Amino acid sequence: MSAHRAITWLRRRLQPLATVLLGAVVLSGVPAERGHSQDLVADLSKHLVAITTGFTGTEVLLFGAVGQPADGSSPGEVAVVVRGPSTPVTMRRKSRVVGIWMNTASMTFERVPSFYAVAASAPLSQLAPPQLRQRNGIGLDALNISLPPAKASPNVAQEWRDALIRAKQRKGLYSASVRPVVFLGARLFRTEVYFPANVPTGSYQVETYLLRDGQVVSAQTTPLIVSKVGVEATLTRFAYEYAALYGLVAIIVALLAGWGGYALFRKA
Amino acid sequence: MQIYLPIAELSLDVFLLLGLGGVIGFLSGLFGVGGGFLMTPLLIFIGVPPPVAVATQANNVVASSISGVLAHFRRGNVDVKMGTVLLVGGLAGSTSGVSLFKLLSEIGQIDLVINLSYVLVLGTVGVLMTWEGVAAFLRTSRKLPARKLHQHNWAHGLPFKMRFHRSRLYMSALLPLGIGFGVGVLSAIMGVGGGFVLVPAMIYLLGMPTSVVIGTSLFQIIFVAANVTFLQAVQNQTVDVVLALMLLLGGVVGAQYGSRVGSRLPGETLRILLGVLVIGVALRLLYELVSVPADVYSIGVGA
């Protein structure tokens, strides 16, 4: 069975999801074929996570197919890494000063993904050697968010790094566990990525890796946009671009509400 | 039913927010205070980032105060002249307060300062209020003579004397200006109107008659809170109108019922109840300051 037949089957199964997009990926992927048939094709059920008034978090389905090696061996394992836009993050550490806990030390990480999640079809340690995971940032322990060496000794830096990951996990922005990538038969795979209600906005990168014998055989990057839409987007833009007017409107709304309450209850 | 708050960037339950507004509104109507000292810690507790909680609560204070001041205006319980002098101090104080807030956020001490201000200010006010309430309660039952309207002290030697007819006072404008300034700073940092500080200050420091104290404090709080809202919106973009609107809807209704119940309870009882409530909030926040944190590391706010 060729990858194309597998994809035809997949398209039928996932018809409502993103037929057109998948078709486009398949067509553009054809000339890139190497030795054996298409190695890896993957796509998302949606390319925009829209934050609306009722937004409480959402799941995005990632699905795809891997090619069968000519020698009939196993097609390999799949790992998926989702990364939010990187920003600088300042971490603070409290210590006890005259009986009161206060922030007494701080450390700034220059580039920290605002969101990070990993899914894989096998335990990460079996998937690839540490160097490879380190290079591609597969797994929280391999995530490249170290401090500049000048700032802290390695073990102190490690403490700050662990603290940053814990803090992000408390906010639900770094997933604590590796989600499963499920194979449907030998070729087709799928996994879900969960985005919580407090997901940061911006351009995300979804990287899908096909690994065989501890080597990356094929990789694909799919963009994903997380954005406020409708009223939420308008209000945020208003608050940042016309800050003074926004402040005045907020005050007027408060005055009207206060006066309205008074007038309403005086009559009653 | 969840609603997404665009500035706070998280979603919360609509009925939780309406209920919170309603309960705090009820208490604020009952005691004649803005209720910010309860609302701001509660908002932070349910996950709203502290800068957003403080700024949004300032906007809420505008609404709850206008509702109250209109009722007091009708009864002639507002000393506009005294209110204006307090207000001049309050505008200067709150403007410095918003800048101070930004500075403290940058150096990572804003949480500490917010908590410490709450513990110190609420602790002091709560103890004084309860003490006064209990003393007044014992006085009425023992039929002891009430104390003088106010004592003369060093403050009466200050220059720039002004006559305040409605408050029946002749005193230096510097004292109300200073009080206004101090409460303005607190208002910006703690996200409160400052009524619970202003009211005792007006009674004990300025010696104003109790009848005009609440109306006058509400009068000046409206403008100070509006100033804080405006400055926070312009400098920090932290006013969340969706959150404010949810809290307002509940608050406006709650306040009306609260003031009805409040008018039926004797003053001393109200004072003791409010004192105990204030001490409770102060103790809760004190516990947070001295107990070992779950994680000594945290992500800096506003970095």
TrEMBL record, chain A:
**What organism is recorded for this protein?**
Rhodovibrio sodomensis
- Key words of the record: Membrane, Transmembrane, Transmembrane helix
Instruction: Tell me the organism's taxonomic lineage.
Output: Bacteria, Pseudomonadati, Pseudomonadota, Alphaproteobacteria, Rhodospirillales
Give the protein name, as stated in the record.
TIGR02186 family protein
TM region positions: 243-265
Q: Organism's domain of life?
A: Bacteria
* One Pfam family from the record: Alph_Pro_TM
Q: Does the keyword Transmembrane helix apply?
A: yes
Spell out the InterPro entries in the cross-references: CHP02186-rel_TM
Automatic annotation (TrEMBL), chain B:
A Pfam family assignment: TauE
- How is this protein situated with respect to the membrane? Multi-pass membrane protein
Q: Where are the transmembrane segments?
A: 12-32, 85-104, 116-138, 169-190, 202-226, 238-257, 269-287
Is Hydrolase given among the entry's keywords?
no
Q: Report the subcellular localization.
A: Cell membrane; Membrane
Keyword annotations of the record: Cell membrane, Membrane, Transmembrane, Transmembrane helix
Question: Which InterPro entries does the entry mention?
Answer: TM_pro_TauE-like (IPR002781), TSUP/Inactive_protease-like (IPR051598)
- Primary location class: membrane
Record family assignment: Belongs to the 4-toluene sulfonate uptake permease (TSUP) (TC 2.A.102) family.
The protein here is known as Probable membrane transporter protein
Organism encoding this protein: Rhodovibrio sodomensis
